[in-house]
Amino acid sequence: MNFSSGKLLTARLGSIAYLFAVLTSLAAQFLFAVIILSAQKAAGIDLAGNAIFNFALMAVLQLGFFGVFYFTVIRPRYGVSVLTFNRRDMLPLALAPLLALCCLLAFYAPTLWFAVLLDKAGFSASGVDMVAPFDFVLGCFVYVIAAPFCEELIFRGALLSGLRKKFKPVTAVLLSALAFSLMHMNPAQTVYQFFLGAAAAVLCLYSGSILPPMLLHASSNALALIIEYTPLRAPVEGALSYAESNVGAAVGLSLAFTAVFCAALAGLLLLIKKRKRAVISGGLGLQNMPLTARPAVAAPLYTTDAKAESIGGEIYAANDKAAGASGEIYADADAEKNSGSSADLRGEIYADSDAEAASETPVGGLSGKTPKRPGGITNGETFAFWVAAAICVFMWITVFIGGLNAGT
User: What contacts 188, CB < 8 A, 6 or more positions away?
Assistant: First the structure.
């Protein structure tokens, strides 16, 4: 689905969607806190540790995220072409579970060391124990289906799409990963969620679709559940104990472990990028498809001349009506360099500078250039982003202090 109607999802609108998502999270947590206190006073029932109650809170929260995306993106019909997917290029989807495994192995060591620091500081993390079979089923639904779907809509569908209009790809990836990490407001998840958010953002940019990041997110959460509720938990706890008692050896092993699987992760992402460039160049038979049927790509090129559209050297004739209906206008690299215009990584068109038009930056890569915009990362366009981030930092500190008190 592509909701493009000529209106662009800007950095300001993406930041507002992020702020509304954070406020929705706070509202849901406040509502359920009131319910917990009321149940405790009225009937002496402790709902705080009840798995079903906590999963209900998480489900309501994810529903709220979807509502935010609906009212800020879908209903106003802003163009977000990452909501489409090229069925001819299934490689990103096929590799998403393997990417999730690489993320787990690559980022486990940094997460482990941060957990050691939190433990040394006296922080005690709280969690939800899934004892009954229904608890596990409900937990799997929330963690593996609802959360990946709704959170990716916000952080890759809205926020990353908007940030990409203003910033270079690397900056947009890092900011969206920071927002994703802070949104969880959980010190124990901070490091891993940042790296996972960055990997999901890169995957979104390289694949041109939000579906592979959703599957990556879902696979990562599924792996976490498998480790937590299977015999695999014993070696994980053993690694934590070993790291605490053998710091020197553990540091060397963890650095080597991280380097190896980070390289594997980077290799898989570059493979996806190379595949997407083959799609753009016509390597998957796009030259035989009508203009309106061509799928969205990671960084569609375009020309304002309706008679100069081309892919892989083949010229297509199309009128302005057909091009506008598709929302995606494709052009050859040479045509793009001479046009003085280009499109962002999601197929939404914006005016570019002559310097960008003359560049030969690979399509869909993190080295892609973005037109210079006035101001820095803290100007008015991203004000809502930093307000939301400040709220999340405050809540993070609050949870951390509460964890210190729980540890004592």
Answer: 115, 118, 123, 125
Task: Give the C-alpha separation, 245 to 139, whole Å.
Answer: 34
CB neighbour list of residue 271: distance below 8 Å, 6 or more residues apart: 91, 95
Helix (H) or strand (E) holding 46: none
Backbone angles phi, psi at 102, to 5 degrees: -65, -40
Instruction: Please state, in angstroms and rounded to a whole number, the distance separating the CA atoms of residues 97 and 222.
Output: 10
Please state at what angle helix 383-407 crosses helix 11-43, rounded to 10 degrees. Answer: 30
Positive or negative torsion for Cα 262, 264, 265, 270: positive
Boundaries of every domain in the chain: 7-280+382-407, 286-358
* Rounded CA separation 63/56 (Å): 10
Which CA distances in Å does 118 have to 121, 325, 391?
A: 5, 53, 21
Q: Within 281-362, where are the H helices? A: 320-326, 333-339, 354-358
Q: Give the pLDDT band (50/70/90) at residue 180.
A: very high
- Using one digit for the tens of pLDDT, what is the confidence trace for 352-363? 333 333 333 333
Query: b/e string for 247-273 if b means 16 or more Cβ within 10 A?
Result: eeebeeebeeebeebbebbeebbeebb
What are the tokens at 206? 């390289």
Half-sphere exposure of 159 (CA within 13 A, CB side): 38
Question: C-alpha distances in angstroms, 123 versus 193, 398, 405?
Answer: 18, 12, 8
What's the predicted TM-score (pTM) here? 0.76
Strands of 190-263, DSSP E: none
Structure tokens at 174: 């890092």
Identify whether the C-beta of residue 180 lies closer than 8 Å to the C-beta of residue 151: yes
In one letter, which amino acid is 52?
I
Position with higher pLDDT, 71 vs 45: 71
Q: Which tokens in the block code for residue 397?
A: 């500190």
Residue 326's pLDDT is what?
Answer: 38
- Report how far residue 174's alpha carbon sits from residue 52's, in angstroms, rounded to the nearest whole number: 34
The upper half-sphere exposure of residue 1, i.e. CA atoms within 13 Å in the direction of its Cβ, equals: 7
- Measure the CA–CA gap between 114 and 287, rounded to whole angstroms: 50
